[in-house]
Amino acid sequence: MNKGNTGFWSAGHRPTLFAAFLYFDLAFMVWVILGPLAPDIAEDLGLNAAEKGLMVAVPTLAGAVLRLVNGLLVDRIGPKLTGAIGQLIVIAGLLVAWGLGVNSFGGILAVGVVLGFAGASFAVALPLASRWYPPEHQGTALGIAGMGNSGTVFAALFAPGLAALFGWNAVLGLAVIPLAVTFVIYMALAKDAPDAPAPKPISAYLEPLRNRDAWWFMLFYGVTFGGFVGLSASLGIYFTDQYGLTPVIAGYCTAACVFAGSLVRPIGGALADRIGGTRTLSVVYAVAAAALAAISTGPATVGLALGLFVIAMLALGAGNGAVFQLVPQRFRAEMGVMTGLVGFAGGVGGFYLASSLGIAKQLTGSPQLGFLIFAALALVALGGLTTVKTRWRSTWGASLQGARI
């Protein structure tokens, strides 16, 4: 790693950065694929609102738990091998689901658990890229690698149309094709950084949890990424249920929202590099809370709802990049396990949002209460950030050279 050159494109390892992005991108595509397919699956299997919410939330929860596992594996066997194992599990699982068919609620939940391995790619792709770059470029590098969450756009754009042509179960098999191509490219280009931390005893991996800053980062990412992925998985259901759109048109609306959130992740990281992660996050939480609170009032038209969701996703996407501008500054030596822990919290946030919208719809006839509660959580995160930012800047932030807190 060349730490003496301050130019981003002259630092790090570009083939690995590209491989991390591509792997993350296609993994995210399949991680949320049940969301765009949900209207068709629900009709075929006769699912109610709560079951629909749980169906799209299970991959998020499974991904959250498996991110912890991947965080441990990354520090012990390296990110490249960890990512290869996860990709093979997802490919095999989708082939089995396609070949045998999925005919029950329990079966689709099992598929969701397998898709969790794709969601766990987060704990691999980010350390894979991060370890190649010096502190002053962490926000940009992790923003580019993390922009792989744009894979959710492909799921929203193409899955409903393919389901209309071939049936939703066939889409699971078709997804294997780009996954297999990505696996080959990943194995050819990705390379573990030469200065990776030495493996530690298993008990040492949870040592960061003794530090209160780790819990703050988990809260902050639980809101930003949890909001992003929870909405990505749920908007197909929302637009079809609330406005009577077809699954294909709902997919286009979802894709617009997800594209906005994905596009600004590297921008959020770069902005955090320039003005500081805490300043960026302060704006993020305020904007996200306002947009989600407005959505909770039940927008009268699909155009108004779409505009508000785009605003919310822009804020949340930028927040994802800003959080991971800060994490490597505070926990560089524990980046593997911290990516797993923080990613776990983000997945839990997404599971909560997706499932709560379904439960709210089942109990009250509308998902609006779920949006309002998540808006309140964004305000809680803003309050927490206000509490800790001065301490961060005067303690560990003061010792960093070339990085802004």
From TrEMBL:
Subcellular location: Membrane
A GO BP entry: nitrate assimilation
Topology in membrane: Multi-pass membrane protein
Transmembrane intervals: 16-34, 54-74, 81-101, 107-129, 141-159, 165-189, 215-239, 245-264, 276-296, 302-324, 336-357, 369-388
Residue ranges annotated for the Major facilitator superfamily (MFS) profile domain, each copy included: 15-393
GO MF annotation: an example: nitrate transmembrane transporter activity
Keyword Cytoplasm recorded: no
Pfam families found in the cross-reference section: MFS_1 (PF07690)
GO CC terms, sorted: membrane
Entry keywords, A to Z: Membrane, Nitrate assimilation, Transmembrane, Transmembrane helix
Gene3D superfamilies listed in its UniProt record: MFS general substrate transporter like domains (1.20.1250.20)
Keyword Transmembrane helix: yes
InterPro entries per the UniProt record, alphabetical: MFS (IPR011701), MFS_dom (IPR020846), MFS_trans_sf (IPR036259), NO3_transporter (IPR044772)
Family: Belongs to the major facilitator superfamily. Nitrate/nitrite porter (TC 2.A.1.8) family.
The protein's name: NNP family nitrate/nitrite transporter-like MFS transporter
